[in-house]
Amino acid sequence: MANIPSGNRDSFGSKFGVIAAAAGSAVGLGNIWRFPLVTTQNGGGAFLILYISFIVFIGIPVMLSEFSIGRRAQLNAFGSFKKLAPKTPWYLVGFLGILTAFAILSFYSAVAGWTLEYLVQAISGKLLHTDDYVKNFADFSTDVYRPLIWQMVFMFLTAIVVYAGIKKGIEKFTKILMPVLVILIGVVVVRSVSLPGAAEGIKYLFVPDWSAVNFKTVLMALGQAAFSLSIGMGTLITYGSYIQKDNHLLRTSSQVALADTSIAILSSLMVIPAIFAFSSVSIDQMSPGPGLVFEVLPAVFKAMPGGVIFAVVFFFLLAVAALTSTISVLEVVVAYLKEELGMTRGKATIIASVSISVLGVLATLSFSSLSGFHIFGLNIFDLLNFASANIMLTFGALFIVVFVGWKLGKSNFLDEISNKGEIKSVLHKIVFFIIRYIAPVAIGIIAVAALFIKGLT
Ligand code: PHE
């Protein structure tokens, strides 16, 4: 049961490694699959302004809270709370994070598996020789075996990286994959915005429509910001525990948030103008489910000169973005099993990925053999999606800021983020004020509202 002494812990080796790993976690299906559609359907530029405000005023403070908890305790999400608040029930927040990891990874790995299927379809040429893309997706997702096999393949890839450890696995891979991702997105953006008719899409994306903004839009912007930054479940507590003591945590948090937001905006520039140029489907009618990426975009690629190459590049980058996110979620569970239950990394990785896969099978089968099975009116996939992103993450983020603001306290927090007084910044006190007073109220509203409004985040 012994907690491994901090001196023996694996850690990130460089500042860029920390950014690559944390931005790798943040940038994922949430940016490319979800953000473009949520933005365009909720007032374009108006949503963007709200979203960016939440990233800056809520997202960065929560991220900084998580990093500081993890780095101070030098432990996994569960162990961190136990160490920083001994003999209190705060460890339950860490436990909630472990459960959230299970819930997120089980449906996220299903979608990640779809990206591999589509990558293969794009490479083999099948994708661009299809006429009915809605049917193509339905045929695939209702098949019992193919989605499961891809999901297992994706979990296996995730497990390999996590098994290799922090420096030699997560850091090494994200340091290579994140720049590749940025370059590929850049290539597709250039193609997309130079298409005839793209200007309409760009306008649609950025011109604010304040009439589309209501209370629910505000809540959606906050929820999307939390999901996209990977905050609220201990991913960044776990990664924080691997960050060197001389790292400037506020700067790192800001850089990760900037990278994540830039990629979300670039993803919109990649997707929306292309849809305006080629698709006959009105953007307002698309649902934020599989629709956009797996049903509409393939038709766009088919109509586009050189579409095969862009289809291959797109599904490859989607898979990469998803992989650098899934490893961060699996690491939460692996670090817990390793440090709290004394398992080796190998054993912890196998147990975590196999048990998550079992839940993942249920998520995937909810499109085929289990499609008739509903709980609270939702199939297992939708339930896991809804419960994790909308409820568990927002409550997690709420508990984390309350913990730092009211339990860990000002002096411990400032001591940690200033590297024992070395970094002097007025921003540190401002951020603490936000963490103690503003963030709990704002997140509290969304967390409670999330229980009542379906499809919020
Ligand atoms: N941020 C990831 C995305 O946008 C999803 C994620 C959520 C990853 C929570 C880790 C933890 O796709």
List its traits.
Amino acid/polyamine transporter I; single chain; 18 helices; binds phenylalanine; 457 residues
Q: What would you note in describing this structure?
A:
The chain has one domain (6-449): Up-down Bundle (Amino acid/polyamine transporter I). The model is unreliable at 1-6 (pLDDT under 50). It is mostly helical and 457 residues long. It contains 18 helices and no strands. The longest helix has 34 residues, at 91-124. It is 75% helix and 0% strand. The structure holds phenylalanine. The site of phenylalanine (PHE) has 15 residues, from helix 1, helix 2, helix 10 and helix 14. Phenylalanine is lined by residues 25-26, 28-31, 104, 227-228, 230, 233, 235, 325, 328-329.
Helical segment count: 18
Could you tell me the number of beta strands? 0
Cα radius of gyration in angstroms: 21 Å
**Backbone shape:** globular
Average pLDDT: 91
Instruction: Give the amount of beta strand, in percent.
Output: under 5%
What is the helix/strand order? HHHHHHHHHHHHHHHHHH
Tell me about the biggest sheet? Answer: none
Helical residue percent band: over 70%
Distinct ligands, ions and cofactors found in the model:
phenylalanine
Distance from N terminus to C terminus (CA atoms, Å) equals 38 Å
Low-confidence stretches are: 1-6
Number of domains: 1
Question: Which architecture does the CATH hierarchy give at level 2?
Answer: Up-down Bundle
Q: Identify the CATH class.
A: Mainly Alpha
Question: CATH homologous superfamily name?
Answer: Amino acid/polyamine transporter I
User: What's the assembly state of these chains?
Assistant: single chain
Class computed from helices, strands and strand pairing = mainly alpha
